[in-house]
Amino acid sequence: MSKFPSDIEIAQSTKMKKIGEIAAALGLTEDDYEPYGHYKAKLTEELFAKTAGKADGKLILVTAVNPTPAGEGKTTISTGLAQAMNRIGKKTMLALREPSLGPVFGIKGGAAGGGYSQVVPMEDINLHFTGDMHAITSANNLLCALLDNHLQQGNELKIDVRRIMIDRCLDMNDRALRNVVVGMGGKPDGIPREEHFRITVASEVMAILCLASDLADLKLRLGNILAAFDTDGNPVYARDLKADGAMCALLRDALKPNLVQTLENTPCIIHGGPFANIAHGCNSVRATKLALKLCDYTVTEAGFGSDLGAEKFFDIKCRFAGLVPSCTVLVATIRALKYNGGVPKTELTNENLDALKSGLPNLKTHIENMKKYGVPVVVAINRFYSDTEAEIAAVKSFAESLGVPCEVAEVFAKGGEGGESLAKTVVNIIEKTPSNFAPIYDETLPIKDKIAKIAKDIYRADGVLFTPKAEKAIAEITKLGFDKTPVCIAKTQYSLSDDPAKLCAPTGFNITVRDVKLSAGAGFVVALTGDIMVMPGLPKKPAANIIDCDNAGKISGLF
Question: Rounded to an integer, what distance in angstroms lies between the CA atom of residue 371 and that of residue 360?
């Protein structure tokens, strides 16, 4: 048996179309996009105005069961499904998140799909792309620099250095920066204080970019960032530091969505990339809404399992943007279900029907949860080489017993061709089953009630415990008038609970909220549970050790 080529080998052997051809196929003119080289472009503000009156296409969300540490292929399925939709004659495009450099050089990998269902140019997309991540990093750190300069220059706003609410950020896994001290060296070097770094995709500026509707909304949201409290306990916002204008200037081009293509020349907009376990996990509102204007169907994804990504997609993104999804595709893998059934990671390639059946309650919970939003559900089995016919039959039978269609997708190995049955099933359910989408909670409820609603209905917890620190934070946020906003729960992706060791469909547990943070610019409240790292570290053998670039500039080792 010949060795299956790596992702980068497949991507580098593919003939891409010039980005002008991809744009022209969407009916765009040269005034509608700004090329960044031959194969990627920014979409202009004029295009938003030109398409404003067009009817929206149908929106398809791709989500998943709880993942294994290796990931389960949502982007691969999303890409393959979009390619397959075009193969069966449906004008379709993708709307995906941008990869973060942290996972690329760490352990998780990139976010451009895999096998024959990739978005290209994959090296550009997984590395610097069009510079959006750098712009977000710079805007965030400008605010931090202005705050520290304000302290140095006399502190007219009476900022309490013990109550600074913003962190610096960097788009790289670097545990040494989690807790640092700045301002050391003497009087000319600033006011000494404790500082923290988070990865760029966990910054509020990233969330704001992904939820802003236009430049005016972006500037307003940036100005609303809660930067600190003064010594009297009053809030100090970014606008009080006169940071919003300069931050907006840095993000002017980053706000424009990026146009690329798949291996089969399906158009794809990639824009924004907050993580779902520490943020809201969806690509930008602008990217999704523009894709809906340009095609009849838009395939998008939300990060990690449906308990994180899909919940936030529905309850935060769709609520803010007025989006109405037509179908949810729930990705399941045999290996993820066996892992949730108790099989060690090293033994997932062996057939084990008993363990598979033990893990099926995890799939059942995710199916039931997605139905609660009133959107039709289709299960997609992302097939791996080790999956047996008996295992696949067991999952299909189980899903169908719950009244949900289930299709095998072989898009990694076969591209769009391997997703045609899934595409036909998705189109059929959209045409025959209307979506009755609605978020699962009323945003005007008290903060604790909203958190409890998610914990009980989605995680299946018995209740929620709030630490004294969390109680105090909720009281303060309520006093500031920001309690009537959606909630974004930061939680482990590996379990429906807040304990990554509790696999499958745990029962008899409580969710503990250890702290609550206000993201006033983004427009939501973040509830922190478990041990969630906002600045990850590198593994013992980081992917960076095998990534290389030859003298001709050709990159290798990138997946």
Answer: 17
